[in-house]
Specification:
Elements: H1 3-15, E1 19-23, H2 48-51, H3 54-59, H4 61-77, H5 82-93, E2 98-101, H6 107-111, E3 116-118, E4 121-128, E5 135-137, H7 147-150, E6 164-168, H8 177-189, E7 192-196, H9 208-214, E8 218-223, E9 235-238, H10 241-251
Parallel strand pairs: 1-2, 1-7, 2-3, 7-8, 8-9
Antiparallel strand pairs: 4-5, 4-6
The structure holds ligand BV8 and zinc ion.
């Protein structure tokens, strides 16, 4: 069904001076990483919005750390999928290509993407809450206590002795001003914006399609279902990202 709209998208991407891709949790769905609002997104019956907040962490840091450990274990076992790999290749095959992601799973980097803006941080980093500013990489194998004894594991602490938190932007927290400014500038300056695997509910990331459309870009939604921005986009490729993106790349 989406093959009809593909011709328009191919023509516009071929003619584009700059293409931007904005991704959400849906691009990692086919790698087996649960999305936030789809099936499997719950953990111990909590939703992301219950746990991804400074209040939840202040109230129960162990519960929030257990959630992140659970997610890191699932992501560690996941592999980048064909959609991630196409976007990594677009960095060298499409002029002026820029990737902006809301995801924190690091799968774009594992697929080879280097030029990306991570609007909401990264689950493989932890940062100090005591003000010393230290940010540590927790991606090496074994950095997490095995889940079975995570309950007894010490909470991650900084070299300065302060409690560490995930280096992630929670609900109610501001994004890094540089990141969101660069993302808005990219959306404003592109000829085609590919909006991939996002429910377009969370701001300010959800504002990017409107910024691009107002600047005259073709906004393309690649998603398995309708979202609030579906009526506003110029083309809809209604299918899974790991199928649609390779089909798009093959036609370029
Ligand atoms: C902020 C990190 C200033 C956590 C996340 C207006 C303006 C500004 C702010 C607000 C505003 N209105 C409300 C707010 C507050 C809030 C917000 O937007 N709330 C929403 C819920 C209404 N925004 C914030 O708090 C932001 N901060 O603006 O600071 C400020 C400060 C104080 C007060 C006000 C303003 C911070 C937002 C960042 C929160 N952190 N993540 C973590 O990961 O642990 S957000 C979280 O949800 C994810 O990171 C993700 O980015 C985001 C959106 O989720 P999606 O990625 O879209 O995933 P989802 O599951 O929802 O959808 C998946 C999609 O994929 C679906 O459409 C599905 O159909 C599709 N799909 C599934 N399979 C496939 C597929 N598509 C393609 N192929 C497939 N195979
Ligand atoms: Zn510290």
């Amino acid at each position: 069904m989406w093959q009809n709209a593909l011709t328009l998208v191919v023509d516009r991407v071929r003619a584009a001076r700059s293409v931007v891709a904005a991704t959400g949790a849906g691009i990692s769905a086919e790698s087996g990483v649960p999305t936030f609002r789809g099936a499997g997104g719950l953990w111990r019956n909590f939703s992301a919005s219950d746990l991804a907040t400074p209040d939840a962490f202040a109230r129960d840091p162990r519960l929030v750390w257990d959630w992140y450990r659970w997610r890191r274990e699932r992501i560690r076992r996941a592999q980048p999928n064909a959609g991630h790999l196409v976007l990594a290749r677009f960095e060298t095959t499409l002029p002026g290509f820029q990737l902006v992601t809301q995801n924190v799973d690091g799968l774009h980097q594992r697929a080879g993407s280097r030029r990306l803006i991570e609007l909401h941080g990264n689950i493989w980093r932890a940062r100090c809450t005591a003000g010393c500013g230290l940010v540590t990489d927790v991606s090496r194998e074994g950095a997490d206590a095995p889940l079975e004894d995570a309950a007894g594991a010490e909470l991650p602490t900084c070299e300065c002795g302060g409690l560490q938190r995930p280096d992630i932007v929670w609900f109610g927290e501001s994004l890094d001003p540089g990141d969101i400014d660069r993302a808005i500038a990219a959306a404003r300056g592109c000829d085609v914006l590919l909006v991939i695997g996002t429910s377009a509910l969370v701001y300010p990331a959800a504002a990017l399609p409107l910024v691009a459309r107002r600047a005259g870009a073709l906004v393309v939604e690649i998603n398995v279902e309708d979202t609030p921005i579906t009526p506003q986009v110029g083309a809809v490729l209604r299918g899974p990202a790991a199928e649609v993106l390779p089909a798009l790349e093959a036609r370029l």
